Amino acid sequence: MPSYRTRRSSVPALAGNALVCALLSTTILAPVHAQSNAPLTVEELARRLQAIEQRLGTAPAASEPADANGLADLDQRLRVIERKLDLQAEEAEARVASTPVVTLSQNKGLSIKSPPPGDVELKFRGLAQADGRFYIDDDALPQNDTFLWRRAQLTLEGSWGPLLAFRITPELAGDSVTLLDAWADLRFSPAATLRIGKTKSPVGLERLQASNATEAIELGFPSELAPGRDIGVQLQGELAKGTVSYVAGVYNGTVDGRDAATTNPDNNFEFAGRVFVEPWKNDASALSGLGFGIAGSQGDKEGSGNGFLPRYRTPGQVQFFNYRSAVVADGEQTRWSPQAYWYRNAFGVLGEYISSKQDVLLPTTGAREALDHRAWQLLAGIVLTGEDAGYRGVARPNHPFTVGGAGWGAWELVARYGELEIDEDAFPVFADPNAVAQRAKSWALGVNWYLNGNFKLVANYTQTGFDGGAAAGADREDEKAFFTRAQFSF
User: Fold this and answer.
1) Which residues are 289's β-sheet partners?
2) Least C-beta-crowded within 10 Å: which of 15, 237, 243, 421?
């Protein structure tokens, strides 16, 4: 009688036959045995095994009759079945190993990852912000109350192997489609990544926040002096276990508070950089959420119009300063900005100061001046429902809002105060004191309701006062604005 062999060892023939009978009895004949207590015969086992073979496609052309060597026959046929199952398992594993992993989750959106080792990945993100803007007591300078799509963005980002990462973000809100982000990263190491393309300039602290994470609906005064997105190349990375981050790059250059044009308009470049330190980032202490740093830029600008000289707006998005139409940028522009934030449990505070100094010229008279405009702000918030505050926003409520349920989401109160001061040497040669203000001071209160990790409702009241800006040296009328926002992101 032949011996029965497992994958790891061989056993005597009698033991092998007994094992076959046991396997058949437990895995094949369990239903039959449950219905009858009659002893099983080799012929019955053979018939049952033949049915299994037919289902697996391994049945022999003609079954030999069960005889004294019936157990040997069953043993051999069982080996064929085992091999068939092994091959099927290997094929299934191969299919899994070659199939991309598609994940769709509420918090992380849609992700497609290549088979192992999974170093190719595509992620799809989305952001939609619908705003309402309402101005109060705007008799002298009436503004249009309106509803609008503030942002409608679809982002494609991902990695293509361990070296290359990328992001493409078009802006669909507004009257035309624009390209916000379009960059590729060469990730040599966490300490050294080379980014090429259009990205946020590294100067402004609040400007560097993700649009869905800012605590107030619109950015504060320092962001009016900081450059927006720019096109260029930058080296960035993290050092000292992530406690020190840096960015240094060269860009086409852009005007204060705005994104760059699609090409370099004056053949000059701008250098910008930032160093930010979070000394206690890896500690479980009260200072673990403290970060501070300094950023700046330097370059030349030569030209006239909105692409070279700034127009400054209030947090209510109303312009209150611009140069006379004949003034041109004619020389160096430098910016520098000390900045810091501190987040501790439900409380957070962000502060920044910025100076933007620009050489300007009035060609009709030959008057030339280096004008230094300055702005600062403090913004604080507290999450009333106990979730952690952070520079990246409130991630998700502990108890998402549910209709008729106990969850009410997360609630956050926000307050801000800031000022923007125009260099007094701008008046009256380069700017008209009867039309534009020399200083703006603004305060705001807001409430944020995070219904869940994707949906957020916001309401802000902002009031801005001015020095100058009206005829005969009078002060411009105070601006009172009530803004609302419904935000969906994934």
Assistant:
1) none
2) 15
Q: What is the pLDDT of residues 71-94, one digit of tens each?
A: 777 777 778 888 888 888 877 777
Secondary structure (3-state) at 311: coil
* Both tokens assigned to 174: 């507004």
Residues 6+ apart with CB under 8 A from 116: 97
pLDDT in tens, 439-448: 999 999 999 9
pLDDT for res 277: 98
Q: Using alpha carbons, select from 483, 470, 476 the residue that is nearest to residue 432.
A: 470
On the question of pLDDT at 261 being above 50, the answer is yes
Distance CA(102)–CA(122), nearest Å, equals 10
Q: Which residue has the tokens 């050294």?
A: 192
CA distance 149 to 135: 18
Whole-number Å distance between alpha carbons of 134 and 156:
34
Task: Please check whether residue 438 is in contact with residue 424, taking contact to mean a CB–CB distance below 8 angstroms.
Answer: yes
Q: What angle do CA 86, 90, 94 make, to 5 degrees?
A: 170
Do 417 and 399 touch, CB atoms closer than 8 A?
no
Could you tell me what percentage of the chain is helix, strand and coil, using 3-state DSSP and rounding each to the nearest 5?
A: 15, 45, 40
What is the sign of the dihedral through the CA atoms of 428, 431, 432 and 433? negative
For residue 401, the model assigns a pLDDT of: 96
Q: What pLDDT score does 94 carry?
A: 73
Which secondary structure element, helix H or strand E, spans residue 474, and what is its range?
none
The rounded distance, in Å, linking the Cα atoms of 196 and 178 is 18
Cβ count within 10 A of residue 455? 16
What are the structure tokens assigned to 3, written together? 């011996």
Residue 127 makes CB contacts below 8 A (sequence gap 6+) with 151, 152, 153, 155, 211, 212, 487, 488, 489
What letter would DSSP give residue 425? G
pLDDT above 50 (res 387): yes
pTM confidence score: 0.81
For residue range 163-202, list pLDDT tens digits in order.
Answer: 999 999 999 998 999 999 999 999 999 999 999 999 999 9
Tens-place pLDDT, residues 324-363: 999 999 999 999 999 999 999 999 999 999 999 999 999 9
Residue 133 CB contacts under 8 Å (≥ 6 apart), including other chains: 143, 145, 146, 147, 148, 316, 317, 481, 482, 483
Per-residue DSSP letter, 56: H
Amino acid identity, position 33? H
